[in-house]
Amino acid sequence: MDEANKSRDFQVLVVGAGSVGCIIAQRCKMLGIKCTLFERENYLNERNRDWNFGIYHAKPQLDECVGEDISKRITSNLVDPIRGLDDKSVFPMIHGQTGEMLKEIPTPNAMRLSRSKFRVLIADGLHIQYSKRLRNVECPHDSETVTVLFEDNTSATGNLLVGADGANSRVREFLLGKEKAALQPLALFGCGAVETLSADISRRIREINNLYIAAYHPEGANGFMARKHLPSLTLCRTANNRHGVVHNVPDPDKPETWQWMFSLTWPDKDSPTPTGADEIREKWLLHAKKLAEPFRSAYLEIAPSATIWCDRLAEWRTEPWDNRNGRVTLAGDAAHPMTYRKSFQQAMFSYEG
After folding, report:
1. Which of 52, 63, 163, 329 is 20 to 30 A from 83 in CA distance terms?
2. Judging by beta carbons within 10 Å of its beta carbon (0-12, 13-18, 19+), is residue 140 exposed, middle or buried?
3. How far is the CA of 218 from the CAs of 44, 83, 100, in angstroms?
4. Rounded to whole angstroms, how far apart are CA atoms 287 and 306?
5. What burial letters (b/e) apply to 43-62, b meaning 16+ CB within 10 Å?
6. Residue 274 carries which DSSP code?
């Protein structure tokens, strides 16, 4: 078989149609490589937990992978499309106990994107099969192919399998075994919520920064706030640090409609994970009360009504895997799962050199 025919017959299988899986598939599409994605959800964005994320220095690489058409439409997924991009944008770091400004890190043209809307955009034109839960992988030594088997008794065969199936990757488990592939729990709990705030508190937060804020407390807590769509806030805290991000801004003239993404983390090695809503809320209040204003008011205001999720944070320290003669590999959180705090810090440090 000549090289042209060989290239046309090459088939990539991607398990996981999240952001990473879809970006890989878009690049394959640009290169004329056949690619099929297999997604465990029954439809796109079936799970209702949403969040936003930042692109700080990797925009040129993203553009290269998704092509000009999608690249032009990315700004429609900004949490605050009215604000747009700002070449003088900074990321403020606040003292979580005193409210003092510690540092403003330059983040020129930083983008905060809605994950759910971004997935819709980058899934455009891709071949995605839904309701596909991976059961096993077959990779015979005497073959150049790899086969994936699903719980619905269907299967697919290709030349390259990419596991983009998240932190609890089944493909990673196939490559390394259950014990070696398992996530390693950390001495940290993380809580999150998406909620609106009163007009006064929304304005006070946005006066500090109109996109995101991080607060670091001497006791170890971390808070982060970010806007979720137009305005949205994200607050994160680890024992004594918090941050906030705007998540959604339905009406720029009505701060009470701005949706914020909250995140709160704190250190705890031995306690069981809070499960019930009352237990989670109790932990939230305990740590939020230590924050400086206006973070304290923001976290306390949403506590009675917000749906708050809580998990023990975990990571997997990447180690080499046998790629079965180049037929199986990992990408994204399947290859290097880490806490959102660590990934955010790495993105920030890239600006600091």
Report:
1. 63
2. exposed
3. 41, 33, 12
4. 16
5. eeeeeeebbbbbbbeeeeeb
6. P
Going from the C-alpha of 159 to that of each of 35, 177, 199, 258, 262, the distances in angstroms are: 10, 22, 55, 47, 42
Amino acid at 320: P
CA distances from 139 to 54, 89, 221, 224, 325 (A): 37, 48, 46, 43, 10
d(CA 257, CA 263): 19
Confidence at residue 114, expressed as pLDDT on a 0 to 100 scale = 83
pLDDT value of position 229: 45
* Residue 212, both tokens: 């995101």
Segments of the chain scoring below 50 in pLDDT: 1-2, 5, 229-243, 345-353
Structure tokens at 105: 């890190």
pLDDT digits (tens, 9 = 90+) for 213-257: 888 888 766 777 776 543 333 333 333 344 455 566 667 788 899
Nearest to 215 by CA among 158, 132, 287: 287
CA distance 87 to 108: 4
Question: What does the block give as tokens for 166?
Answer: 């998240």
Q: For residue 158, give the H/E element and its range.
A: strand 155-158
